[in-house]
Here is the input.
Amino acid sequence: MKRAYDVVIVGSGVAGIAAANTLAGHGLEILVIDENPHAGGQILRQNCRVTDGFWEFDPRLGRSGRTVSIRKIVQSLRPIQRPKGITCVHQARVLGIFSDLQLLVHVPDTLYPGGSGSGRVLEIDAGYLLLATGARERCLPFKGWTLPGVMSLGAAQILMKSSGILPARKTLIAGTSPLQTVLALEILKNKGNVTAILDENHLTKKLGLLPLLKHHGSLAGEGAMQMLRLLIRQVRFRQGVRVTEARGKNGLSAVVTAGLDRKGNTVPGTFQTYPARALAVGHGFTANIELPVQAGCALDYDADRGGWVVRVDDALETSVAEVYAAGEITGIAGAGKSFVEGKLAAVSILEKLGEKTGPDVCVPELVRMQKQQMGYASFLNQLCQVPSSAYEAIDDEVLICRCEEISMGEIRKQISQGFVTGGSLKKATRCGMGRCQGRICQPLLFDILQALTGQTPEQIGSPSFRAPVKNVPLESFLHP
Ligand SMILES: Cc1cc2nc3c(=O)[nH]c(=O)nc-3n(C[C@H](O)[C@H](O)[C@H](O)COP(=O)(O)OP(=O)(O)OC[C@H]3O[C@@H](n4cnc5c(N)ncnc54)[C@H](O)[C@@H]3O)c2cc1C
Here is the structure.
């Protein structure tokens, strides 16, 4: 592994791969870094069998002039040997980005045998940097959400995709995310059972959002087919229901839910208890903006794009010259947008370098497709939106920062004492300063502040992050 590359891509999800493949074959030295053991990002964790390969997109994909369908993307991926000029490093974490596009990267010992066993931290220089770091799940805490057996929808997926393990024989699914139906089908495919899908949205809200899918017939069709397949398998659906408590001594044994009115407020007297060993619950996604913030990139807040996202121009260049961003970090919109943006960002970099792109790349069409995907972004993010009343209703005893064990009561107390910006509340409570570096609680803290103080996101302030954005053994810094 060298210390300088023409282009460094962080993230080998759909966006990172699409970019790498477009950049390949132009004589550039390209480095792709990902902390996952394999390429494919969140959507393709199941393709673990490929260890030394790369993933190729069908060149026909995206030229049909139609919306990119997620199923089509997954089907069109197949392993090939790494294209010439691309070095792909997995299980490596980018910890920080400094001026002159210098990256601090933690690499595993497998790359440098004879190390300390803790890996090494390297400095790598990038001529151009493409950030394609994707998204993670949002959550809405409730009493008992730290009990073993309670997990996010994505965590349940990862268990099955990466390790072939079911969360339990029977899993209860809840929240607001479209991942609910995807997960339920995966559980059934793996011979598990789904107790029920408890969706916080009422059917009327979903129907009201359907016009946003006018350019996304294939996605709407896929969603409808998923529902149909689940109904045929007799999976129970309940709409307008929220989990209010998880019960159990050493692990989950029961889940309490409440019915919701049209505004998302719990309705007294509608509580119901489900016996459960596993609960998978999620409330949409938030962009992984830590590295762009580190690099000094400007952010925008847009609820329709999933909250704080990286600001990019039409060429997908950020506010920092030679730093590009693609995929979920510029707006949560699913795999189709990530694919298109990965290609577009690569084309922009090639143009800057004076390189011609191949005949399979049609920029105006990619731009049109990218704009179209924003309709799906609005649908997805509005579907997953949690009303302020849900944050206001969190009990004082519920932990918000799991690493530092900061409760909702403590957060309420500090807000009442005047700590009403994200930065000041973090310093007053240590919320977000623990082991996970705020991966779970940081977006939550902002949502709570918004709900409890009525301030705008801009008044609360955009999040700030310092290196290292991921935790690594201190020892790894001793062997540069
Ligand atoms: C938990 C989860 C499960 C999902 N499951 C599905 C699904 O089943 N079906 C579906 O259609 N959509 C799913 N999605 C949505 C999915 O994210 C998008 O559809 C799409 O795959 C996004 O592509 P991307 O390239 O923008 O990001 P991602 O696919 O998220 O790829 C980003 C990559 O960046 C890497 N990365 C991030 N930070 C660092 C760092 N500091 N150092 C090194 N590497 C880093 C990550 O490891 C990751 O592989 C899921 C999302 C999440 C969060």
Remarks:
- Residues 46-68, 77-81 have pLDDT under 50 and may be disordered.
